[in-house]
Structure formats: C-alpha cells, structure tokens
Amino acid sequence: MENTRTKIIAVSSGKGGVGKTFISLQLSAALIGLGKRVALFDGDLGLANVHVLLGLKPEFDISDVVAGRKSLQDTLLQGPLGLQIIPGASGQRDMAELDGRGLARVLQGLNDLLPKPDFLLIDTGAGIGTHVTTLARLADSLMVVIRNEPASLADAYGLIKVMHGDFGFQKFEIIVNDSTNAKASEAVFTRLNEVAVRFLGLPLSLAGIVPRDESVAIATRRRQLLAEASEITPAVAALRKIAANIAALPAEPDSPDFLLDRLGPSTKATLS
Ligand SMILES: Nc1ncnc2c1ncn2[C@@H]1O[C@H](COP(=O)(O)OP(=O)(O)O)[C@@H](O)[C@H]1O
Ligand SMILES: [Mg+2]
Q1: Which residues have their alpha-adjacent CB atom under 5 A from ion ligand 2?
Q2: Is the pLDDT of residue 129 over 50?
C-alpha cells in the first residue's frame, strides 16, 4: 500500500543567495519526475519569490492564512508539472515577524493539506531567525545549501549550530550548489564537516554537489523550471540523484504526524 504520510524536506542555508529557492524548485520537479505528489511552501514569508520565478499571480497568499482570512488550502497555486505551491507574501514586514497565532494557523493548514502530498518541500528563506528555525524543525530531512565562499560556510555552520544546540537536530544533509569544480566542492564540504565534528561532535552528510548551470538564467527568464527543458544538464542530473535518495529514505519513525507536535511543548505553548 502507498505510504500516505507526507515527508517534509526543508531547504535552508543561513546565507541568502546561495540557491535555496533554486534547489527547492528543482528538487520538487525531480520528485514529481519520480511519480511523487509534491507541494512547495514558500517559507521566505515576507520576501516570497517562488511564484514570481514561475510567473504565477496568487489570488491569496500566506498572509491571508496568518490573518485568518483564508485557509491554507485556499492559497494553493497550480505550478508547472503539477507542482502545488503555497505562496508566500511579497514585501510584507508583518509576515517576516510572524507571531505565534499566525504560525499556528500556517502549521495547521500544512497539516490539513488535501490531497496529502507525498512530499512537502519548505524553502525556509535566509537567516537563523525564529521562523526559519521553526520551519526547519518541521523537517524529516533538513537540506543545508552551501556555496564555495567563506560567508556561506560561516552562516551554514551558524544554522547547524542553532538547530543542533537549541533544538537537538542530529541530521544535516549538505548540498554544495553552484559548483564549478567537483574537487573544490568536496573540499568545501569536508571543511564544514570538520568544523561540525570538532565543535559540535556532529558529522554531516553530503547529499550532493550541484554544478553551476548556465541554462538556469534562460529558464528563469522564461519563467520555467530547468526540468521542463528537454536537455538534461549536469545540474538536473545531480538534483535527480539527490531526489532519488530522498525518495528512498524511510519515514522517520520518531517524528510526530501532527506538525505542532514536532516543535516540542515549550514552543507549542507559545502558539496559541
Ligand atoms: N546551480 C546553479 N547554477 C546557476 N545559477 C544558479 C544555481 N543555483 C542558483 N542559481 C542562481 O543564483 C541566484 C540565487 O539563487 P536563489 O535560489 O534565489 O538563492 P536563495 O533562495 O538561497 O536566496 C538565482 O539567480 C539563481 O537562479
Ligand atoms: Mg530564495
């Protein structure tokens, strides 16, 4: 029988501009290519851009859910390849400073999505603020996107440290994005891993290396996903491999089905 539990994949990075949204969209497309039902939540709440990248105009977005005007189900947008999109709000400061009650509405809505997707991807947005870490804490699998630059490594480490130290997260899947040299990208992963082992006693996993892809810019201008193009570029191939590994992951036996329960009693108490 088909497993009806939704697996949650959060894509985070600490630093902005390293490819979270790109990876979230392309991984979604790759999972759809494997026959999975996928929903993508634009968790970059105040500066949303998933729908912009796809040229979609949402009638409602997450700010309507937070305010209690609409259910999260009402905001669902039909994206390319059958991808379901839960759009964020663009340029709304109150969204970037989401309060407990608003967040509870969002989590309830994600919980009640119908039909239940096989995968819910969350593009968390940048930083290590509360709403980023709260969304990341929902994940069965947390992907941390890095790029070969010192600020990216430092910020990824900051995210890992908070998720591990404050919230007990143990598993971090690193994606080295925008790679122009596989050896150098492996070395970047090794460097981050060494720091995590030395200071946190925590080994990281390398989920994959995604090459720089010159056709991204063209696809973006056309408001398309790379996966919609006929050519399978090295980046698409790398993302398909990561998606296949994600799809093969067994469900986390310990993670509660009800999303609010994943946040622990103290956070839960603040969401009322
Ligand atoms: N592997 C890649 N090859 C080429 N361009 C990329 C790649 N990954 C990301 N980009 C581009 O880099 C820019 C930043 O990526 P984006 O996904 O918006 O970052 P973030 O969501 O982390 O802020 C975008 O213009 C995106 O198209
Ligand atoms: Mg983004």
Answers
A1: 20-21
A2: yes
